[in-house]
Design goal:
Organism: Tilletiopsis washingtonensis
Distance between the termini: 81 Å
Helix content: 40-55%
Number of strands: 0
Protein name: Right border a protein
Number of helices: 5
Radius of gyration: 26 Å
Largest sheet: none
Structural class: mainly alpha
Keywords: Membrane, Transmembrane, Transmembrane helix
Strand content: under 5%
Length: 128
């Protein structure tokens, strides 16, 4: 059995300028605690998903999922946690609720449950 290969030696004649390198720093916006209107609007993804469940409309459920994913993409990871009892109301909660609404609507569609339009037509006596 052969002996393990020795570690590669570092070449000291490297032409790159090590004296000009600087350490990596995270973007300052990640730690920003100011409320942004964009984040507030994207937090309405749970409202989209709730409306989709009430109206049995998959289009609204898909829109809620897209808004929840945009909320996750715009999240600032180093922002201090708010102590106002936020719970799961962040982007993770929006995505979970949006996925649940899409899954529940798919299950209802597979089982043959009537849609909102059928229920309104039946209540008003109009034919669909």
């Amino acid at each position: 059995m052969s002996a393990p290969a020795p570690y590669r030696r570092i070449d000291t004649t490297d032409p790159r300028r090590h004296d000009l390198s600087r350490p990596f720093t995270l973007p300052g916006a990640w730690a920003d605690d100011r409320a942004v209107l964009y984040d507030t609007l994207l937090a309405s993804g749970t409202v989209f998903s709730g409306a989709a469940m009430l109206l049995k409309s998959p289009v609204i459920a898909y829109a809620g999922l897209i808004v929840a994913l945009a909320h996750l993409a715009g999240q600032r990871p180093l922002q201090k946690k708010r102590e106002s009892g936020q719970g799961m109301a962040g982007p993770g909660g929006s995505i979970v609720f949006s996925l649940l609404s899409v899954i529940m609507l798919a299950v209802q569609k597979a089982m043959g449950a009537p849609s909102f339009e059928h229920a309104v037509a039946k209540a008003t006596g109009n034919a669909v």
